[in-house]
C-alpha cells in the first residue's frame, strides 16, 4: 500500500457505534469513507468506494455480518476485520466469518454497544491498518489433503516412518486460524507428533478454537489448563491471556505450565515464550513453524529452535494474509524452509521422517 491514509468502511447497526468507531479510526489517521447500518449497505459501500478495509459487525438486521462477508468476498474481495462480542457464542460466529474470507477479528469489550471501546483505540487502529495490508485476491481455504501435502504436491505417508518423540510448535496471528486448522487437520496420526499451538486470540476464543481443531484433526486437541502432560498424537492450544511454557520432558511426554508473565511483543500468549522453552527442554526432534501474522512474535523463538538443532519452517508471503511474523523470522537467518500454507504439513513430515540408509 502507498503512503496515503488507509481508507475504511465502518459497518454496525448501532449509530452510536458507527460514530464511535469512525472517530477512533479518524484519530488514528484512518480515513472513514463511508458507514453502513447493515450488510446490504456494506456491500453497496464497498462497491462504490473500494476501501482498503472494512470493519464488520456480526449481528445486524436484514443482512447480517456473515452474509455480508460472503457477498463482499464474491463481489469485491476486500480485507475485512470482524468486530465480535467477547463471548463463546461470539467466537463460534466469528470463526464462521473467517471461513468465509474475513482476515481477522477484534473483540468488543462489554458487548455489542460498548462505551469501553475507546480504551482500545490504539489496538483497534493497529489491527485495522494491519488487516488493510492483507492480500485477499484469490484467497480461500488452504487446500490440503489427508496425506499431509497440498493439492499441488501431496506427500505420501503410508510408507513413511517417523522419528520418535517429535515436537512441533506453531506460531500464528492475523489470518492464521484457518491456516492452523488446515495444517493440524492434515497431520497424519501415525506421525505421533506432540503439537503446541500459539494463536493470538482472547480467552473466550481459544477454547472454541481448540474444539474446532479437535473436530478437524485425527489428533486429540485441547486448550491448555496448566500442568498438562502431552504425548504423541496430542495437541495443546495456548489459552488467551496466558503464556504456555514447556516445563519438562520425559517418558515420551512434555510437561507444560501456564503463567501470566508480562506480554511479549504486546501479546500473551506469545509464541516466543513457548518456542524458547521448547528449545531449552525438548530432547527429541523439534520443529518450529511461523505462520501469517502482524508483528515479530515467533522470530526469536524460531531462532532458539534453530540454535537447538531444530528445524524451522515459515509460511511464504504469497499465502500469508500478513507477512510480518514469517518475514521477521526469515530475516534472522534461522528458517530452513519457506513454504506455501498448503505445503507446510509436508514440510513438517519431511523434518521428522526417519532417515533410512540405502
Helical stretch tally: 11
Q: At CATH's second level, what is the architecture of the largest domain?
A: 3-Layer(aba) Sandwich
Portion in strands: 15-25%
| Percent of residues in helices | 25-40%
Structural class call reads alpha/beta
The rounded distance between the terminal residues' Cα atoms is: 51 Å
CATH C-level name of the largest domain = Alpha Beta
Shape: elongated
Strand order of the largest sheet: 8-10-7-6-13-14-15
Largest sheet: 7 strands, parallel
Overall pLDDT confidence: 90
- Using only CA atoms, what is the Rg? 20 Å
Task: Kindly report the CATH topology of the largest domain.
Answer: Rossmann fold
Q: Tell me the total number of β-strands.
A: 15
Query: Uncertain regions: pLDDT < 50 for 5+ in a row?
Result: 140-158
Briefly summarize what is shown.
By secondary structure, this protein is α/β, with parallel strands linked by helices.
Could you characterize what this model shows?
With 358 residues, the chain is of the alpha/beta class. The chain has two domains: 127 residues, Rossmann fold (3-Layer(aba) Sandwich); 186 residues, 3-Layer(aba) Sandwich (Rossmann fold). The protein is 34% helix and 22% strand. It is built from eleven helices and 15 strands. The strands form three sheets. The chain has a seven-stranded parallel beta sheet, with helices on both faces. α10 links the parallel β14 and β15. α2 packs parallel to α3, α8 packs parallel to α9 and α9 packs across α10. The longest helix is centred in the middle third of the chain and has 14 residues. The chain is elongated. The termini are far apart.
